[in-house]
Fold:
Amino acid sequence: MLNSKKFKRNNMKKIITLVVLATLFITCNKEGCTDPTATNYNAEASTDDGTCTIEGCTDPNGVNYDSNANVSTDCIYDQVGSWTTTRQDYEISTLIIYLGDTILDTNYSEVTPSDSLDPTRIDFKADGMIIEYYIDGEIDSTSSTWTVSNSSNNSINYINNDGSMTDTTTLNIESVNSNFMRLTATESELDTSDPDGFASFTLNIIWEFSRN
Structure:
């Protein structure tokens, strides 16, 4: 009888010991996210279970791209990159007044055919350089540059220097995302050199691209 009780006590001790050891093992090997940068980081976890949630822009075309992110948040885009021209539309308005009479008041729109878009491709480099690719095979990497036009970064100055003169066009970034960009511009000129009248010219440009 004594031996039976002793046997039971010994077994109970072994069971308690095993339970304690198992509890310690589970506690010491708690699974969870072990990445401190993750939104679901678990400071008590010792084994990473692959559930870490890292928020950020997951699109490589985004300015704020985060290669470590696995849950995408808002991405920011700009004009930097390589773009194929898909649309070139022009609207020209002309008004000429002479001796109080309207001599000319006209609007003219031109939609460039898809096979005549030129340049066919433009690369906006991060360092401010522009490379233009033309239908005839010419590649111009020296004539044009760009700068930011305002603090909101929603317009750029497209600067062309052909060696004899410099021409600057302010392009508004109307829309830009991972695969698409629309640029618009308005250029106006007023000629008041004739005291008996004046002439005004307005050019509106719509330029669209797909990202390469």
Q: What stands out?
A: The chain has a mean pLDDT of 87. The chain is about 15% helix and 50% strand. The two ends are 88 Å apart (CA to CA).
